[in-house]
Design goal:
The chain has 97 residues and is of the alpha+beta class. The chain has one domain: Gcn5-related N-acetyltransferase (GNAT) (Aminopeptidase, 3-Layer(aba) Sandwich), CATH 3.40.630.30. Strands 1-2-3-4 form a four-stranded antiparallel sheet, with helices on both faces. A hairpin with a 2-residue loop joins strand 2 and strand 3. The relative contact order is 0.21.
């Protein structure tokens, strides 16, 4: 398995790359790269997974900041599924590390 890295820092995300990746993996819901950026940046927290520098996974949290939170946009590129990658993102989101 390649080295998987996770980031909560969205400043370096290539939103065109994210759009192309979800579209190629049949996970596209029609958002433009700009709309993806707005969705992720306006979230309570977001986590992006990379394999060897290639964007392969997403997850973000919508929250009222008090007692309710929802994890949405949980996606792992098909070739990387069933390797525990998606399972690690909620922990990183919860701990913000």
């Amino acid at each position: 398995m390649p080295d998987i890295t996770y980031t909560l820092d969205l400043t370096q995300v290539n939103w065109d790359e994210m759009k192309a990746a979800v579209q190629a993996d049949d996970f596209d819901n029609g958002r433009t790269p700009g709309q993806l950026k707005a969705s992720f940046c306006n979230s309570f927290a977001a986590c992006i997974a990379y394999a060897e520098g290639k964007l392969i996974g997403t997850a973000r949290v919508l929250s009222d900041g008090v007692c309710n939170a929802y994890i949405v946009d949980v996606w792992t590129q098909t070739a990387y599924r069933r390797q525990g990658i998606a399972r690690r993102r909620p922990n990183r989101l919860r701990n913000r590390s």
